[in-house]
Amino acid sequence: MAQHNDLGKWGEEIAREYLIVNGYTLVATDDRNGHFEIDIIALKNDRIIFVEVKTRSEGSSDPLDAITPKKIHRLCIAANTYVKQYNYKHDVQFDIITVVRNGNSHKLEHYPDAFRPPLRGSF
Fold first, then answer.
1. Which of 60, 69, 71, 114 has its CA 20 to 30 A from that of 79?
2. 111, 92, 85, 113: which is closest to 46 by C-alpha?
3. What's the CA gap between 116 and 123, in Å, rounded?
4. What is the pLDDT of residues 59-104, one digit of tens each?
5. pTM for this one?
6. Where do the H-state alpha helices sit in the chain?
């Protein structure tokens, strides 16, 4: 596996641990539907939460720069498919977690309710 893939998997593990400690119930991880993927799906306070995790090494670009309109659109399509497939009646929320690795330590930032789905489409 490529080094950046290892870093990404490490960041997702850190994010999962953070969510569990903070009272989230994990429903799925690395959920794939065709070409679309959701890093983490969780429940908390009657909401289904779709979490996008971005991990970088310190000194790299800002992880939030990777959350492009195209990425948001693809995440919304995947979430919509998931909600319909499992007939979830919960309110939907999209979170972003960034993890920046600095040697043996890291900095995690959680952005709850980071964006709303675009109005186009059937979400």
1. 60
2. 92
3. 10
4. 888 999 999 999 999 999 999 999 999 999 999 999 999 999 998 8
5. 0.90
6. 3-21, 69-86
Amino acid at 88: Y
Residue 60 one-letter amino acid: S
Give dist(CA 15, CA 29) in Å, integer: 11
Number of other CB atoms surrounding residue 95 within 10 Å: 23
Q: Which of 1-5, 31-35, 72-76 has the highest mean pLDDT?
A: 72-76
Q: Residue 10: is it exposed, middle or buried by C-beta count within 10 angstroms (0-12/13-18/19+)?
A: middle
- Residue 66, classed as helix, strand or coil, is helix
Please give the Cα distance from 114 to 120 (Å, whole number): 18
Rounded to 5, what percent of the chain is helix, strand, coil? 35, 40, 30
pLDDT interval class at 122 (50, 70, 90): very low
Between CA 95 and CA 19 the distance in angstroms is 11
